[in-house]
Design a protein that fits this description.
This protein has 470 residues and is of the alpha/beta class. It has helices spanning 39-56, 61-77, 79-90, 94-113, 148-161, 176-188, 203-209, 222-232, 257-269, 289-301, 321-336, 368-371, 387-395, 410-417, 452-457, and strands at residues 3-4, 6-8, 11-13, 19-24, 29-35, 119-123, 127-135, 138-142, 165-169, 194-196, 215-219, 238-242, 247-251, 279-285, 340-343, 358-361, 378-384, 399-400, 402-406, 424-427, 442-443, 446-447, 460-468. α8 (222-232) links the parallel β11 and β12 (238-242). The structure holds nicotinamide-adenine-dinucleotide (NAD). Nicotinamide-adenine-dinucleotide is lined by residues 142-146, 169, 171-172, 204-205, 208, 219-221, 224, 227-228, 242-245, 276, 373, 375, 401, 441, 446.
């Protein structure tokens, strides 16, 4: 079985801590091994990054922009091979994995073209006052298993563009596509600037607590994000935390059911529901509840479930057995409380972690499936009568990543969406994420934003240069 090395300061290395298996969700069996790094390699990667930072921070914007453009070109040239690796380690269908890779290319190109202008606050006979943006130093990127390649690109590209060195740690469930990304990046940046450390047990925590790391950009669960915040306090690390969500969507009376069913289904079941900003609670006005439920069931029945490498498959497995067990537990709890499972609701027999798209009706707030983040292929559909009351229910969550309002009158829907307590409020769409639009959560869904100019500034420190001319 092929063993993938990790990368320290740009060099491929075998594991001092041995290696671990990478399981293919479509079969439930290991298909590769990955070298495991430990604290010694972390210390070495930090030391190399700190050395390299002295030069990399002085590189010009043109040099760094060119490096990112070259990285984007190399990713594009290898897109299909990377996408196939994503399918094997993550499970999503090949077409979606290609979108993930090409999304990474688009994000890298957007970052390559961005500028970090110096702001001149005063230029008079007396003073010249400039606000500069300096790189922070060494940034650690810690990523989850749902969109392993794209989220790594989201973290690493702005960090490099702003002049930082990066140590990336992918989820041990999906390390391989990030290693491939690290290998490509290492070709285009000086030695020491890029490391990818793979490992199990404690590596992420050691990074969060490491005094030689200046910032953590973390995407994962709220619980782990809280630990990163606590451990990072050791040297007041800068933080960007993209955490869990339980996005509500409110469908207003008079909505065109046939028109909205497709985009709602897509937003809920994107990546088998394993998407941070997926639509996770659907509130539908009682006047159109039955027809919308029926339309969604029709779409669920069209899913072609199977191994993502097979032609025609549109719906892959859940990534890992723990997540599958959570989905099963939430559906069992809903059933026990009298909810109706409209379709799906049982794990598929045979190998792999397959669970069909599942719609659960006759359910309400107070049920685990509505109140908790399912992060899998099941959607609770809740009927409501009063718009003001449903807004309160949507806002009653500890999570506040995204949310949406759907309705025939765009202005009225936008007015309601503006009252959602969420980092992003969509109208007649959901989970629309772009490189140029800031994205991030409120409350327990996170801290800081990614994307856009604000997402780039998050990888910089301000320095005010105040020159008195007298
Ligand atoms: P997780 O929190 O279990 O793991 C995320 C990463 O943190 C992994 O690389 C893991 O190895 C590492 N880690 C584990 N313990 C750590 C510690 N003590 N210190 C530092 N790092 C540690 O999350 P997951 O199960 O991989 O991902 C699913 C979760 O991620 C869901 O809650 C989902 O909503 C969230 N997510 C959020 C976004 C977003 O943009 N807001 C995007 C994707 C996923």
């Amino acid at each position: 079985m092929h063993e993938y090395p990790y990368i320290v300061g740009g060099q491929a290395r075998s594991g001092s801590e041995g290696s671990f298996e990478v399981i293919e969700p479509a079969t439930g069996k290991p298909f590769a091994r990955c070298a495991a790094a430990g604290r010694e390699q972390l210390d070495e990667a930090v030391a190399l990054a700190r050395q390299a930072f002295a030069g990399w921070r002085c590189s010009s914007h043109e040099q760094r922009g060119a490096a990112l453009s070259n990285i984007a070109a190399d990713i594009e040239a290898d897109a299909e091979a990377i996408a196939r690796l994503i399918v094997r380690e993550q499970g999503k269908p090949l077409a979606l994995a290609m979108n993930e890779v090409m999304g990474g290319v688009a994000w890298a190109r957007y970052r390559a073209a961005q500028q970090l202008p110096v702001e001149v606050i005063e230029d008079s006979g007396q003073n010249r006052i400039e606000l500069h943006r300096r790189p922070l130093g060494v940034v650690a990127s810690i990523t989850p298993w749902n969109w392993p390649f794209m989220i790594a690109v989201w973290h690493i590209m702005p960090a490099l563009r702003a002049g930082n060195c990066v140590i990336s740690k992918p989820s041990s469930l999906t390390p391989l596509s990030t290693l491939k990304l690290g290998e490509i990046i290492a070709r285009h940046v000086p030695a020491g600037v890029m490391s990818v450390l793979t490992g199990v047990g404690g590596l992420g925590g050691a990074m969060a607590a490491h005094p030689g790391i200046d910032k953590i950009v973390f995407t994962g669960s709220t619980q782990t994000g809280q630990r990163v915040m606590r451990d990072g306090a050791v040297n007041l690390k800068r933080l960007t935390l993209e955490l869990g969500g339980n996005d509500a969507a409110i469908v207003l009376p008079g909505s065109d059911v046939q028109q909205i069913a497709g985009p709602i289904f897509q937003a809920a079941f994107l990546n088998m529901g394993q998407t941070c900003a997926a639509l996770k609670r659907l509130y539908v006005h009682r006047s159109i509840y039955q027809p919308l439920c029926q339309a969604l069931v029709g779409l669920a029945q069209q899913a072609v479930i199977g191994n993502g490498l097979e032609e025609g498959v549109t719906f892959g497995p859940v990534q890992n057995p723990d997540q599958l067990a959570l989905v099963e537990a939430l559906v069992a709890d809903a059933r026990a409380q009298g909810a109706t499972v409209l379709c799906g609701g049982e794990r598929l027999a045979g190998e792999g972690f397959f669970y069909p798209p599942t719609l659960v009706a006759d359910i309400s707030d107070g049920s685990r499936l509505v109140d908790e983040e399912q992060f899998g292929p099941v959607l609770p559909i809740v009927a409501y009568d009063d718009v003001e009351e449903v807004l309160q229910r949507a806002n009653a969550s500890q999570f506040a990543l995204g949310g949406s309002v759907w309705g025939p009158d765009g202005e009225a829907a936008a007015a309601l969406a503006a009252r959602l307590e969420s980092g992003v409020a969509w109208v007649n769409c959901h989970a629309q994420i772009r490189p140029d639009t800031p994205f991030g959560g409120c409350k327990m869904s996170g801290y800081g934003v990614e994307f856009g100019q604000e997402g780039l500034l998050a990888f910089t420190a301000q320095q005010l240069l105040f020159r008195h001319k007298g």
